[in-house]
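User: Here's a chain of 852 residues. Predict its fold as tokens.
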Amino acid sequence: MLRAQTVVRIGGTLGLVLWMAGLCPADPGAKGRPNRLARETSPYLLLHAHNPVDWYPWGPEALEKAKRENKLIFLSIGYSSCYWCHVMERKVFENEDIARYMNEHFVCIKVDREERPEIDDVYMTALLVYQQATGSDAGGGWPLSMFLTPDAQPVAGGTYFPPEDKDGTYGFPTVMRKLTALWKDNHDQLVSNAKILTTETQRLMRPRLSLTPVKLTSEVAMEAGAAVLASVDPRYGGVDFRTSSPVGPKFPSPGKLALLQTLEAIGPSGPRGQALALTLDQMALGGLRDHLGGGFHRYSVDREWKVPHFEKMLYDQAQLLELYARGWEQQQNPLYRQVADEIFHFVMSELASPAGGFYAALDAETKGIEGAYYVWSAAEIEQVLGSADAKLFRAVYEVVDRPEFEHGNVLRMSRPLADWAAAFQMPLAELEERLAGMRRLLLAKRRERPALLRDDKILTAWNGLMIRGLAQAGRILQRPEYVSAAERAANFVLANLRTDDGRLLRTHTAGKASLAGYLEDYAFLIDGLLALHQATQQPQWLTAARKLQAEQDRLFGDGAVGGYYFTATDHGATLARIKTCYDSAIPAGNSVAARNLVALTRLTGEAGYRESAERTLKTFSGQIVEIPRSVTNLAIAMVEFAALAPASEQSETERAPKGIPTVGGAAAGVPEFEGIVLVSGEAVDDDGSVKKKKEVATAQACLSVDRLPAGGTCQILVRFKLEEGWHANANPPSAENYIPTTLTIESALGCKLLDAKYPKGKPFKMEDTPEPVSVYEGAVEFRGMIEIPAEAAGKVDEMEIKVKYQACNAKTCLAPKVVSLKGKIAVAGPGETVKQINAKHFPVTAAAPSDR
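Assistant: Prediction complete.
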């Protein structure tokens, strides 16, 4: 994040607009006594271990203290290579006066977003909800600074906060004082607002119901590819380009480019190939690439790839390594092979641990100056190379006396070497050889500079990405040393990042592995192991992948509707349990899981893998149509699934046994429903009085599962039928004074109805209304999702489903009534399997949260 705007407004009583001021770099200064973070292993948390702030790591100790002392929580989330995280530490958290106020009035929690991605995801979403509620267009970023109630509900937040008021805007001390006053004087308002923010955050993060079937074909992926292609910058390459705001920043977005490469492999097209070549060329020539040390920086701050944000992340190297290897395979451009080789040598020299795993990142700053390690003055170039070679080097790499980047020249090329060879009337091979020698001299000189901070935690998920990248690139480029490095990393992770019973752990630092693994840790490592199997044909990698897949299914699988949750069933609770297919800088765990299942189907021929792949794709397939550029790895999975041979037999859901007894009444008329079927008994007036006469409306309901999944969700379908000649108001109604037909549930175990969907009504002209009204006639279906508390595991729920309606005919309207469907429904206990049933009634299940 290079610039930040933060808006804080609570219940209309406080409005603060904070613009980041220009900051002079500062030395960290003297460090005080260690705080609780000194016991952590995260390099990012250890950077704050000697702050005067009384930091806590996220966990029961901090949360219980906040409740016990009734204090607001200040939650700060960042990562070790985040430039503005370092600035806020130096300017704010090292300030004794600011720290003293923080310690007195808040419980202060520091989180490494790379160690605890679920906490970061939840509260980043909460920040965006908060900004939308307050009318801010500031956006998210890091450091993420959130104020929470003692029970961890979001109150207000922002990104970077400066240390003092400046230019009419509030600094961090003022923000804290105002929040402290509000907590004291407007406590109920703050708590009420926090509940609203929490509810909206949970709504956005829970899976949504999609009622539009999407066929699992490569044509759907082609449409996603067309959306990516339409967003390519026609002049400088890169995706997600908008002509309305052409100025940077610009990210490499390897997942989107990988989709174009995948589609190019199954049907080459001129526009796609041209867009790929333009983007790969421009990224390789520009300042995004480290022309001396190899590898790529995080992103470009401008449209032309001139000046990067200088941090280097393992996950970028992993994805770009495969991208350039496949680029060479498709286009035979020797530049792409050179770039891939440079990435490999950079990773092995800077990010490879002696034991075989790979470290997370290199920082962007030296002594508080971002990019200082990488940039050059014209005088430095001449001093190292001599005047003759310096003249040539300066021309090719655009080294000028007054660079546009304030700290020096970022090495970059405006045109390919072949053009320079022609300009200098020199054979291309000779020019390449001379420049290579110059780069070696400059790299040796650069290594004399103060070393960059390296985040030496080894993350399972990111190592999985790197294992895949090395295995795939090694196979494509015929580089056995790449594959050997991938094997060493796989052996390291499997030996050092698992518990005694085989569960994956998230992170390994200083000889210690900790934190339970997430979906992405399993999915990415499985992906890497399958790539290793493809490269080596060694069976042990497939065997290890299959064992991890079984463990992933058990811990993260949503047996009710398909797909996987981000956290395991026994992970610590946050505001929401995440289940998404949205790609960020790394691909979504669910899309990688789908691709893994397709690969396992192809390798083993087992129908169970195919069925799981199909269910996962159906769960999220609607997103490929709705937000195609945000789920490109899922689109790749769609292509790979479509390439499988046709299934030889029905899926398990289609073979599910029929005739399971119903509850709540007779099952007459519903033989096509499986499992527990709830059938309406007596209808009652809205005031609760029972009427014995024949009613004009009945209802039946079925679920998508044979038992409720504890801590998960399932779908419900309610079929509501009106007698001939009667109708009920649609939802939404035609006018405010009309009573809509509504679906609700009551649950003894606290199950909740989410995201109720109502069909569109039919126009009906009544004698006393000038315009037709929207009504339901005959049989209509309502759908929704039921959320089941985790603590309900192993119990039996007494559930009542209610359809409230007002029946009318051409002459009269009856009093509002409720059709009640009651029954007892079992909740799956630990280790019990939840099977999907009624498949033909739930052809498409949950979709991911909205794009951001």
